[in-house]
Write the structure tokens for this entry.
Amino acid sequence: MSQTPEGLNFSIDSRLLEELGENLVTRNHVAVAELIKNAYDADATEVELQFTNTRQREDGQQSEIRITDNGTGMTYDEIDENWMRIGTTDKIRNPQTEIYGREKTGNKGIGRFSCRRLGNRLELTSIAEDPDSDGYVKTYVEFPWEEFARETDVNQIPVYSEVEYLDEATTGVTLRIMDLRDEWTQRDFNTLRRNVLTLSVVEQQRRDGYQEDPGFEIIFDASEFDRGEGNLAEQVYEAGWCELEGEFSEDGDVELSLEAKKIGKRSYSLKNSYDGLAGTTFRIAFIPKAKEHFRDPNTLSLERASEVTSEYGGIRVYKGGFRVYPYGGPDNDWLGIDRYYSRRIGSPRDELKDLKGDLEYNNDFNRIMLSHPRNENMIGRINVSSDANLEMKTDREGFIQNDTFEDLKDGVRLALQWLTLQYSNYQAIKEKEELEQETDDLLNALGQEGESSKSSSKSGGGESSSTSLSEWADSDEGDSSNTSSDVEASKSPTTSDVETVDRAISVIQKASETATSKQDDEDVTQAVEAASEIVQRSVEKNRKEIEFYRSAFSVNQFIFSFMHELRDMILELETNKADLNNVANEIEGEQANSVRAIAEDIDGLKQRFQQQMNLFGVLADSDGDMAEEEQRVEEHVEKLISSVEYISEDYGINLRYDIPVNLYTPPMHQTELYSIIVNLITNSIKAVIAGSGSEKEIVIEGIKSGDDVVLRVHDTGIGVPDAYREEILQPLVSDPGGDLYDLLSDEMPKQLSSQLGSGSGLGLSIVSEIAEKHGGTVRFVDEEDWETTAEVILRE
């Protein structure tokens, strides 16, 4: 065999850059978020984004996004070997940053494709330390993406560059992305801010073996958008329910000011003798776990709020601009907030008793503190005055315990109790407004029905609202000559009937919630009486269905009550562990080791409790998110898989997913996506366990097909016969073949089976309703190598 004189080499068509840009980075806000993450991964402490003419551009206007950071920058060689190299493994080989030891967040080298996705031209300027001298090297590169035409080898397209050597400079990278491909909307901009929110609240912290990380600031200069200017971390403080500021005065008082949703600005002076703290200030944001309480839901989604508080919650302490360790963070409750909460103390301290009659509260005054914010629901910082009577320990780990330090803790705790009183007042105002609105809606609905009745009446007389109620109740009785199917159809309430019943129930609930306000409003009383009659007649007409859902609701309430108590137990265990560790630090020898061993046992018990909560906890955290938003599928699937891992591992099930990182659903509620995934995963787990086969595997797959988002769950379980594939999607049909739960009872203990659902027959019908709401369908399809494949289609 003859040998060719030259070896063969692959070449890359420039079309690949376009394909990668379109497929890896599908949205403009995803592209910019990746570039911000690149700045974080370069150990930058600040990144600034300037948006120019990015909305509704006119002909001739130059559109541009400029991203500037103060990170380590890149040398010419690093740009050539990493940035210009397609498919580099640098972030895999070096998962931590060099200076601060940050875990890298960028999506493994798609930043350059983000630039390609965003605009037709890119100018990159980078300044880095010169490895061959004591100076710096500045590199400038131009990327005219339009010249990367199809059927052109990437290696044959020249890229203009310049290199300059400097004696003094500040390191960093500036990206100028020009001639933007897409116009930006306010929604795009809001989504971008939410996507990088967790990076914006990264506080000063230490990691072993690295320099102390001063944190990361994201600054926007985008005046063409609402909330487009300023520090993103500041916007986080302004997005929760409230922002509390306080200052210790020369007189020993604490001057408080609060700005909150619905109640506006308020101030108060805590009259105590806190000596030695003059000039010390604090700033605390309270972020409840319910989006309805957020002042700015465009900045803070429920999902992002949960991430921010779980990773960066707590109140940190600073002195002279430097953080004082170990105070602050979600796992360091140095103020004893969660300890206080777990003791179930309801009454405010005596210093606040004079406020009892000043405001209207949503609870008895002696029970208000039961709704005190937890440590994880607050982010904040205390700036200790340089003149404060507080001395650092010799090892620089905290302050020496003295009366001034105790006064600091006491003053902040008392300020938080005052905040809790304001929150209770806000809830009372909110509930009263909701009752008034529901009352108006119900009275309007009854009035409209009355008008309808009048127009159809021969006499045309003025019937009262009770006549409207009677006609509403009798409106679907049907004629005795109807066929049985007609009679059954007539017994189903119309959409307007359901809406009226919903309004009635809501009015009764709101009236009971605000009963302490002693309202004597005649219209409200009339509305409640009318609502009661509507509900009573509705129950009589639909007794069987009402009984079923009432039972389901009762079980659900019990579960969430159980979770609430279990959370308190976990908090108490964490507090006990911290107390034992503190005791161990005060003693020596074997006694200290014994105490630490007990603390470790308590921590293990806490972890077991936490694991059992995970299955319900994921769903509980999504409760209350009323806004429909695009949901990143991979993120939610990963959370739910982790919540059932202890079951899949016990039964040797290989549970995995294959979902692109950038796959987003159409706008929908988090709970809707969770309902789809939970029902399909738990059904597959039960089917695989019941199958008792050697191959135990479940794969969750997600793809984008045109305008559709397609989710498929494959499993190797017992399968669904063709004859039952339509029937099983109907309500109250759980096991039409009668095999699943008989087989499952032999393989799975009852307590574990109950955690996966015991077969109410509602799961798949709920999935089907959600899919139909979003223009899609649910069906079972045949896939090679799988016993069952359930497919859910959601349309844009």
